[in-house]
Amino acid sequence: MGGLFRGASTRPAAEKPVATSAALDEVGRERLVRLLSAATFLIFFQAYMVAPLIPRLSAVFGVSAQTIGLIVPAYLIPYGVSTLVYGVLSDRFGRRRIMLASLTAFVLLTGLTAAARSVWELVAIRFVSGLGASGVVPLGLALIGQVYPYQRRGRPLGWLFGAMAGGAAFGSTFGALLEPSLGWRGIFLVVSILGLVMLGLLLPYRGLLGEAPPTPPTTMVDILRGYRAFLVTLRGQRTYVYVLLNAIFHSGVFTWLGLYFAQRHGLSEVGIGLALLGYGVPGFVFGPIIGRAADRWGRRWLIPAGLGIAGLAAGFLLLDVSVLVAALLVTLLSLGYDMTQPLLAGIVTALGGKRAGQAMGLNVFCLFTGFGLGSLLFGEALALGFGTALAIFSVVQLAAAFAATPLFRSETTAGEPRP
Predict the structure, then answer these.
(1) For residues 47 and 1, what is the distance between their CA atoms, to the nearest angstrom?
(2) Is the model's pTM score more than 0.90?
(3) What is the CATH topology of the domain spanning 2-407?
(4) What 3-state class would DSSP assign to 267?
């Protein structure tokens, strides 16, 4: 298996995904997708299980909701920034070492979070956790780009991004449900133990992750040239910009929905968790279906539609709706995510060529930096009122959906866009 990945790196960029996927048997590829999806789910579970606990932690540490809300971007922003490094390191040293080391850091640092004695210790540990845990998801996405041809990547990418949305939703739900019995410290310890179990399950299949390709030492100039190559084309520019903007929108709205349900509907932590549970449903149920649709008909209509659905769902939350309708709108918000980010990641896998890890590292940098900025910007906009902040995010998202229609019209089913 290691020889397989070494050989693949020397082939032309257009042939590499097809040749590699032909060498891997179907059972191995499907097992790989399941393991990566499980790891992705757990990482996002940990990232978002604190979102509905913001009101509770605010009272525990005696600080404002805006201050304790920093624990979300304190994790997500360094997570996004460090993916730029992990992507380059994986192209140089191989995915296996980086992914296993990163998952080990996730286990240790998540457990350490339970020892935080103040809000600023909590923020600091979350910051370091973001740096250490960010080597799994982007490299998993890059690996999918190697073992599946472009025309078949939609479904496995749908599984991975469905695991992201599901992890965020279930983390928000069970973080709230388990806090009264386990306490917030106990939740972090449980997740750390589950991460250790996940690491143990992954080790027997580490050969599927590939070894280091026989590439010459990479200089900083080479790295910068690689990023420039992704961004000089219109296809690269529009894809990465939309990954960033869409992430800002979804994280900004989702992070503060706990406060929305607490203020608008008077829900407790448990009620908030249940109301947010629908955010992960479309990813689990429709993620692979949406991926197959993208493989069959292309991404040119699905991406603008997903942006529009999410923008409208956020806009309708401004109305005086019941808690049940609000929960359904949260589900539609998730559907918009599942119709956009996995499809954008599919385009990125076609941009990478021999720098697949670097290309996906830049994608996840935009994704997680957007997640962090979104929660931070929405928190700042709360000074204008929750309704005003939600309206601003909704209008910007709808404008992005309108602009996406002509920008992505060339994204058909082929690996390269239609002229």
Answers:
(1) 32
(2) no
(3) Growth Hormone; Chain: A; (1.20.1250)
(4) coil
